[in-house]
# Entry
Amino acid sequence: MVAAAGLLAVVAPAGWAFDADRLLAAAKRLGPQAQSGARALQGMLASSAPLGEEARLAAVNQFFNRRILFRDDTETWGQADYWASPLEVLDKGQGDCEDYAIAKYFSLVATGVPASKMRLVYVRAQIGGPGGAVQAHMVLAYYAEPSAEPLILDNLVSELRPASRRPDLAPVFSFNAEGLWQGTGATSAGDPVARLSRWRELLAKVRAEGLW
# Structure
């Protein structure tokens, strides 16, 4: 009961975009670790929501990079590819690159950052510098303006950097709740909800958690 009071006592700032009651109820169903993570998440979101957008990016990026351990889906979920919701990630305390990017996206939406300014980007990442192995990876890109160079939120490099300072990343396609694009360009390639079944399932889970 004390935990519930602490979670719901936060006054919602202007632009607050999530349902604290649903977040608490969903966390309670998952268990104590999810409840602890939800309290920490809400505290971070409440403190960062009044800040400028770049400060919110930094706070959310740091929160998940510090709190979540990188593990692949076979170890965490016993399957090759699983898209976890933010609360599922906080409950497990671990996740893969997609889980980091997804949790950051919905957390920033919850602080009032427009979804239209962000894209989840599948990239080919060169690990270990020139000549290193290339692997599939996902990051979150933020556009202050539609034509602006994006800032990259990544679990591999914790510092927020413009895309031009991440030559190790080659974008393949990007998406958000509004569209699907080739690379990071502005030409729509279709409806992500229709094209990405895991995205559709994820949106339903996040709605149930009250974060979207």
